[in-house]
Write a structure and sequence with these properties.
One of its GO terms (molecular function) is ATP binding. Pfam families: Pkinase. This is Protein kinase domain-containing protein. The longest helix has 20 residues. A five-stranded antiparallel sheet has the order 1-2-3-5-4, covered by helices on one side. By secondary structure, it is α+β, with helices and mostly antiparallel strands. The termini are far apart. A hairpin with a 4-residue loop joins strand 2 and strand 3. It folds into two domains: about 70 residues, Phosphorylase Kinase, domain 1 (2-Layer Sandwich), CATH 3.30.200; about 160 residues, Orthogonal Bundle (Transferase(Phosphotransferase), domain 1). The chain is globular. The relative contact order is 0.11. Helix 3 packs antiparallel against helix 4.
Amino acid sequence: MATCRYVQVRPLAAPDVILCRDLCTDMDVVLKRNERGAGVECAIYHMLHAAGGHQNILPLLECIHDDDSHVCLVLEYCPNGDLFDLVLANKRIGTHMSLVYLEQLSSAVATLHALGYAHGDLSLENVLLGRDMQVQLMDFGAAVPLHVPTAWAGGKRNYMAPEIFTGLPWDPAAADVWALAMTFFAMLTGDFLLDDSVVRDPIYSILVQQGFRGVLHHMPQWAALVPEAVVPLLEQMLL
């Protein structure tokens, strides 16, 4: 069986995500076990492969049919952790590198959108840092078709667009842009802009009534960390 090639080292973030050693290459890899019915991640990777891949999307090395009901994705291992780890260790990421990472992430998301899917769960936790410290977007398990409004509520609450909380159909592409803005803000400040994207969050109320500049006016500790040059960009992303 193909999985004999991979020797388990230790579990990673979830029980179905395992760090393994590839006996053929003597390299560490990650095995992610999915139910075969939840095939959106495999489908996206097949489309990415056909399109030539993307340097900022975590590469799929192999797809193994583990049994009748499961598929194992063999993914490149990124030993430098994720953006959440980086922000946590350094309190925040400087403006220059935050912009570099935003550009890389935006390019990866644009490629995903060109394939007809929104990521659905963009976050610091779903962006790994490769061996060259370039970002690697991962985890397409929450991806949804781009041009089909959905009422399904996915993602992490700190990153979710406000319309997702309404229970009404929402635009997956616009929600990805909102989540990118939340990710960018967290890199710049080391803080989340919103606890919940709902009116009971006082910051969200200010954002709706006064815009992003109004938030910075009320939160001078954030204003000191967000350069004026990027404020118009965040304003556009948070529309």
